[in-house]
C-alpha cells in the first residue's frame, strides 16, 4: 500500500488546520481534511496562463502562488523581458514551495523575471492603478460563488472589478479561475470589460468534462 506522508502543517489565518502531504509522488494541500490543491490536477491553472499568453503580456500579476503551475506556464510563454509579480497571502505556501516543492515549481521564485509579494493580491492591484499590468490572473479562491476566504469577496464585486480594470493597461486582460459557472458574475464583468467570456476548463488534460470555468475580460 502507498503511504501518505505529512510534510508540513500549520493553521490558516482563521484557525483551520492546513497540511502539505505527499502520496505516490504527488503533493496535496488540505485544509480541514479537504484537498484544495494537488499536483495531479493542474490543467486549468496552466490554461489561465495560455489565455493570457494570447495577448503576449509583458507585465503580469498572478494571485496566488499555490503550487506554481500558473507561474510556470506564464514564464514558459513569456519573453526575457517579462516581469511577473506573484502575490501569495500565506507565508507557509511560499516556504513549502521552497522547502518541499523545489522539484515541482518552487525554484521558479528565483527566476530573475519574478517578484514575489507576500500579502494580499488586492494590495498589488491597488498599487497598480494607472494601468501597470498587461495581464492579471486571479486564482485565489473557489471563484465568485463559494469563497474559502471571505476576504477575497471584494475582488469579485463591482468595486473590485473597477480596481482590477484600472490596474490593467489598455488592451490588458483579466482572467479569473472559478470552480463554477456564474452568469451573474459574467454579466457584472461585462459592465467593466470587453469581450467577456466563460471558458470551460479541464482539471487534467484527459478529463472528459470541463469541471472549472475561466472568466476572461479585456480592457
Ligand atoms: C488554488 S491556489 C492557486 C493555484 C495556482 N494557480 C497554481 O498554479 O498552483 C490559491 C492560492 O491563493 C492564495 N490566496 C488566497 N487568497 C489570496 C489573496 N487574497 N492574495 C494572495 N494570495 C491568496 C492561497 O493561499 C493559495 O496559495
From TrEMBL:
Keywords: Polyamine biosynthesis
Gene Ontology biological process: polyamine biosynthetic process
SUPFAM superfamilies: S-adenosyl-L-methionine-dependent methyltransferases
One Pfam family named in its UniProt record: Spermine_synth
PANTHER family noted in UniProt: BLR2883 PROTEIN, THERMOSPERMINE SYNTHASE ACAULIS5
Stated name of the protein: Spermine synthase
Species the sequence originates in: Haloferula rosea
Lineage of producing organism: Bacteria, Pseudomonadati, Verrucomicrobiota, Verrucomicrobiia, Verrucomicrobiales
